[in-house]
Each structure stands twice: as structure tokens, then as C-alpha cells.
Amino acid sequence: MKGPGAVVLVIAVIMAIRIVPYKKQGGAGGRSNNKKEFTWQPPDTMQLSFSEKDALVRYGKDLIAHTSLYLGPKGKIAAVTNGMNCQNCHLNAGTKQWGNNYSAVASTYPKFRERSGTEENSYKRVNDCFQRSLNGFALDTDSHEMQAIVAYINWVGKEVPKGVVPKGSGIKTPAFMQRAADPGRGENIYAQHCRRCHGPEGEGVSNADGSGYLYPPLWGKHSYTTAAGLYRLTRLAGYVRENMPFDASATIRRLTDEEAWDVAAFINAQPRPVKVFKEDWPDIAGKPVDYPFGPYADSFSEQQHKYGPFGPIQLTRKKKSFI
Ligand code: HEC
Ligand code: HEC
């Protein structure tokens, strides 16, 4: 075949080759692969009335944003946590796109989770973060505080149809690197992009009245524990990649994927509170590729499960499990 017909055919073939694999990949990984199309906007707090039900939602938002004020070491209600706020890791009270938001909680819980090997409801999931991320204690399901937190989280996701995980929910996993993440390179990135706020020892900076942090700690005794989600490299790198430095803008650029992996490796190589839940992972084959503690159902080392490269581990898995 010659002439314009051939050109059209060649273009059509090139387009077919290009379009098909792109569609199949559907993003860098993580939860984006099984998302149905749904555009989510956080509801506006101005919609809230002064009814008792809406007052509970408001209180829940306040607890997420200022957890330490109520439940920190000097908390007004009780001393339950390490002084961090839920909002430190769930930005804008859990409403920011790719800022670890809560848009998919109301729509997907209760759900089966590999870590516990059980079906978990939202109360259990919130208590996971209290115990692991905030190095604290579980709240009573019936407590006013727990009821308020869950009322708020359900309100945030109230428009999301059952079973749908909106785009931008949770944490976006950066594309895997071919090599292991490197804490040595990460130390330089930390010095350049993070230390001015989070401090030379990752200790953070308290706010003026000492009720919480202006800049939360990244390691050390007041930080998240070894049982927390952020202790997994994909979670920390993904959170940092999309959200840090906190004042990132056109002039203060965000990190590349590679920089996010390396700085995450540096942070998670530092000491932090150790917490062990013996009942975790009843089926070790369900551990995510980046779960840093053995035993494993595969033959990769703890070192590789902690720092990567994760690609070869992923190849041995039937399904993607980042959560
Ligand atoms: C140190 C960081 C950190 C803090 C502080 C924290 N969380 Fe989390 N939270 C995480 C991470 C990481 C995940 C898992 C995200 C993922 O795997 O995509 C998570 C997940 C969740 C989920 C499940 C979201 C989903 O879509 O499945 C809920 C609900 C939640 N957190 C509530 C809370 C509440 C309430 C607080 C405060 C009491 C809190 N978190 C404090 C890091 C944190
Ligand atoms: C301009 C100040 C600033 C810079 C620079 C900055 N952060 Fe943050 N970071 C914050 C603030 C503020 C929060 C809490 C956000 C909130 O509560 O709304 C935070 C939260 C975090 C969290 C989750 C909470 C925790 O303490 O575990 C991580 C992880 C984090 N930052 C990592 C980094 C990394 C890595 C860098 C460098 C690439 C960085 N940050 C640079 C201000 C900063």
C-alpha cells in the first residue's frame, strides 16, 4: 500500500499501540487501578446547621484538626496520644486531594483488611491510627469523641456512592525505582527541603502554647510508631511526594519521585517508637511489598521489603496490595 492510505494506516497503528497500554496501566500504581470515575469535592462546612447531629460533625472536624488540644499529653479530655494531630497526616482535616483524605471511608467500610485478617468498621480503622500513628490508646466506640470523629469522616464522604474510591483518595504511590531507596541521598534532600521546618533531629517544633505542633516530628520518641502506615516506604514517599515541602509552589518546587523515595528512606531509617501487634497479618502472604518486617511468604530480604527495589517483589504477587 502506498500514498495517503498507508500514512493513515501507520498513524492508526501507532495510536493503537500508544493508547492501549496507557489505558491498561491506569496510573503509577496503588489504588488508582480499581477506581471508577467519580469526581469528588469535599462538602462545605457552611452547609452544617446547628442541629445536634451537625454539632457532632463539627466537633469531629475539630478533633481531627486539633487532636492534641483534646487528646494530647496535656489534652482537655484525656491524655491519649503523642501530641500529633490527625490532620498532620490527613491534610485539611482529611479533605485534600492525594493528601491522605477520607473520601473513601464512608463508601468502603466495613471492609476486609489483610493486616487484621478481619472485616473492619470505621471505628476500628480510626483506632488503628490512634494506637499506631499517634502512639496512643484506642477510644471507646461509644465515647463522644469517637462518635464525633466517625460522624465527621462519614460526612466528608457522604456523596460518594457505595463501593466507589474517588480519584485523589488516600495516598498516591510514586512509580517504583529500579534501585533501592537510599537513606544517604535522602539525608541531603532532608537538609535541603525539610529541615527548616521539621528540625535538625526530625523533632518538629511545638506551637506557642505547647498544645501541639507547628511542625510535627518525623522521627524520635514523639513521632509515629513502627506499626504505623507511614513506616511503610510507599506510604511515606507517596505522602511526601504530593504534599511536602508544605509550602511547595511554583517557586519552591515539589520533589521528584526519586527524591521522595530517598528522603522517605532516610526518615524511616531513624529511630522511632517500636510497637508490635502480634495479631497482625494472620496470613503472611497478604503483607504488602513494602512491609518491613518478616516473616514473608516470598524469599526477599527484610532490607529489600523496607527500601526496595519493589518491582521484583511485586512481580511475584497475584494482586496489587498497597493498603
Ligand atoms: C502519622 C500519620 C498519621 C496520623 C497522625 C493519623 N493517620 Fe490515619 N492514616 C495514616 C496512613 C498512612 C493511612 C493509610 C493510608 C493508605 O494506606 O493509603 C491512614 C489511614 C486512615 C484511615 C483509613 C482511610 C481509608 O481510606 O481507608 C482512617 C479512617 C484514618 N487514617 C483516620 C485517622 C484519624 C481519625 C486520626 C487521628 C486520630 C489519624 N488517622 C491520624 C496516617 C496517619
Ligand atoms: C514549610 C514547612 C515545612 C517543610 C519545608 C516541610 N514540611 Fe512536612 N509538614 C509541615 C507541616 C505544617 C505539617 C503538618 C500539616 C498539617 O498539620 O496541616 C507537615 C507534615 C509532614 C508529615 C506528616 C506528619 C508527620 O510528622 O509525620 C511528613 C511525613 C512530612 N511533613 C514530611 C516532610 C518532608 C519529607 C519534607 C521535606 C521534603 C517536609 N515535610 C518539608 C511543614 C513542612
Mind explaining what this structure looks like?
The chain has 323 residues and is mainly alpha-helical. Among the domains are: 47-156, Cytochrome Bc1 Complex, Chain D, domain 2 (Orthogonal Bundle); 183-268, Cytochrome Bc1 Complex, Chain D, domain 2 (Orthogonal Bundle); 284-312, no CATH class. The protein contains 14 helices and four strands. Strands 1-2 form a two-stranded antiparallel ribbon. A two-stranded antiparallel ribbon has the order 3-4. The structure holds heme C (HEC) (2 copies). The chain crosses the membrane at residues 6-22. This is Cytochrome C. It holds the Pfam family SoxA-TsdA_cyt-c. Residues 181-271 form the Cytochrome c domain.
What is the typical, i.e. mean, pLDDT? Answer: 89
If strands are numbered along the chain, what order do they take across the biggest sheet? 1-2
Rg to the nearest angstrom? 21 Å
- Main sheet makeup: 2 strands, antiparallel
In summary, what is this structure?
This protein is mainly alpha-helical and 323 residues long. It has 14 helices and four strands. It is globular and about 55 Å long.
Features:
14 helices; 323 residues; Cytochrome Bc1 Complex, Chain D, domain 2; mainly alpha
Topology readout:
Elements: H1 4-25, H2 52-65, H3 67-71, H4 86-89, H5 91-94, H6 105-108, E1 111-113, E2 118-120, H7 122-132, H8 144-156, H9 183-193, H10 195-198, E3 205-206, E4 213-215, H11 233-243, H12 257-268, H13 302-307, H14 311-315
The structure holds heme C (2 copies).
